[in-house]
Amino acid sequence: MPIDSLPVTLIIPGVLGLVIFVLLYAGVVLPTIWSRHPERRKAAHCTLDMLLKARRSLRRIGR
Predict the structure, then answer these.
(1) Could you tell me the pTM of the whole model?
(2) Could you tell me which of 38, 21, 18, 37 has the C-alpha nearest to residue 29?
(3) Which of 32, 34, 58, 63 has minimal CB crowding within 10 Å?
(4) Backbone dihedral region of 40: left (phi > 0), alpha (psi from -120 to 50 degrees) or beta?
């Protein structure tokens, strides 16, 4: 199915989700792994941990 035949209501949330994922990955996950500075790695790790805990709690609420 060509992308131009998909309804806009499916394309916009998909693109928005992809943009959010890329921003979180580039802004949180990569610094956790690649930063040379221990304080940056620690801060990125804490942020990633908070995001994952929030996601888990939202999944529990949704059940």
Answers:
(1) 0.57
(2) 21
(3) 63
(4) alpha
Joined together, the tokens standing for residue 46 give: 């804490």
14 CA to centre of own chain? 13
Instruction: Check: CB of residue 52 under 8 Å from CB of residue 29.
Output: no
Alpha-carbon distance 55 to 35, whole Å? Answer: 24
Query: CB under 8 Å to 32, separation ≥6 — which residues?
Result: 41, 44, 45, 48
Supply the DSSP symbol for 2: -
Question: Which amino acid type is present at position 46?
Answer: C
